[in-house]
Amino acid sequence: MAISGSVLDLIGDTPIVDVSRLSPNPQARILLKLEGMNPGGSVKDRVAKSLLEDAELHGGLRPGATLIEPSSGNTGIGLAMVARVKGYRLKVVLPANVSVERRQLLLLWGAEIIESPGSEGSNGAVRLAQRLAAEHPEWVFLYQYGNPANPRAHYEGTGPEIWRDVPDVTHFVAGLGTSGTLLGTGRYLKERNPAVELWAVEPPSGESVDGLRSLDDGYIPPIFGELGGEKLLDRKTVVGPRDSILWTRRLADLGIFAGISTGAALAGAVRCASRIERGVIVVLSPDGGWKYLSTGAWTDDLDEVVERARRTIYF
Ligand SMILES: Cc1ncc(COP(=O)(O)O)c(C=O)c1O
């Protein structure tokens, strides 16, 4: 195997594993792309690298600069890792009630945590970061929800990798957070084959499944509008916390230790498989299970885990 000059060169090119054993339809294959294999542990390593390289190229970003970003999860962690390697300071705005693993990972990479009210969730963190960025024009606000370098990471990375590895793909299923994954990957795949269908997995309005948001909750990420999300997506399917956890557990039967939003996306893929005659469904697994251990998702009583997930933000 080649030797990489930097861990940043190891971002992307993630493996795909066949999980068709979980498909309810023998004619519908389900393939899982394991983004937890990225060095920072999630799909957001791709986005972090893309946001920073874009700011370096077009925004005059120089080492020593201070960055600010609202993120209760993977983007903050990915950015903290890439910023550390590249020599930037990072302030992450996150709701007070995020899980302990999130904090520990941010602190380990040297990020500074600014707390927003837990009751306001990730939308509250976005609002506070916007206010702080306006008060501190010397800080660089990358803003993944409105930054085209987010979907571009998927248009240039995730999409081509799937097309290379699964040229007979018929459906792409992923959770919807900023919408960067779905729209960037989806646009690339539809350009190659317009018949490829894009399925977005959303939590029920008002409920949270790690990393995902319901567009019905009032905040539409600017990149979603700019990339014509409504037109690009073929279907939205709602998956709640209970099903997400159940399908995350089923993956463990196959030796796959994935985060809870992977369970949500898989539940969407299983629904897709049961509705089509035949096909090859690629599902994106955003991260591994490590950051969710304190949820008890694999070991504790399901009702208790679901209840706990209502009080603490685990993404
Ligand atoms: C665990 C997890 N799942 C899914 C998503 C959704 O991805 P995207 O923001 O590209 O829509 C995220 C985004 O933060 C995430 O952290």
Helices, strands, pairings?
Layout: E1 16-18, E2 28-34, H1 44-58, E3 66-70, H2 74-86, E4 89-95, H3 100-108, E5 112-116, H4 121-135, E6 140-141, H5 149-165, E7 171-175, H6 180-192, E8 197-202, H7 222-226, H8 229-232, E9 235-238, H9 241-252, H10 260-275, E10 279-285, H11 302-311
Parallel strand pairs: 2-10, 3-4, 3-6, 4-5, 7-8, 7-10, 8-9
Antiparallel strand pairs: 1-2
The site of pyridoxal-5'-phosphate has 19 residues, from helix 2 and helix 6.
Summarize this structure as a short list of keywords or feature phrases:
315 residues; alpha/beta; Rossmann fold; six-stranded mixed beta sheet; four-stranded parallel beta sheet; 11 helices; globular; binds pyridoxal-5'-phosphate
Architecture overview:
The protein is of the alpha/beta class and 315 residues long. The protein has two domains: 186 residues, Rossmann fold (3-Layer(aba) Sandwich); 98 residues, 3-Layer(aba) Sandwich (Rossmann fold), CATH 3.40.50. 41% of the residues lie in helices and 16% in strands. The chain has eleven helices and ten strands. The strands form two sheets. It has a six-stranded mixed β-sheet. Strands 5-4-3-6 form a four-stranded parallel β-sheet, with helices on both faces. α9 packs across α10. It is globular, with a radius of gyration of 18 Å. The model has no long low-confidence stretch (mean pLDDT 93). It binds pyridoxal-5'-phosphate. The site of pyridoxal-5'-phosphate has 19 residues, from α2 and α6. Pyridoxal-5'-phosphate binds next to α2 and α6.
Please tell me the total number of domains: 2
Report Rg.
18 Å
User: What structural category characterises the helix and strand content?
Assistant: alpha/beta
Strand order of the largest sheet: 1-2-10-7-8-9
* Parts with pLDDT < 50 across at least 5 consecutive residues: none
Largest sheet: 6 strands, mixed
Class of the largest domain, according to the CATH hierarchy? Answer: Alpha Beta
Helicity, in percent? 40-55%
Strand content: 15-25%
Terminal CA distance = 33 Å
Q: What's the helix count?
A: 11
Order of helices and strands: EEHEHEHEHEHEHEHHEHHEH
Number of strands: 10
Bound molecules: pyridoxal-5'-phosphate
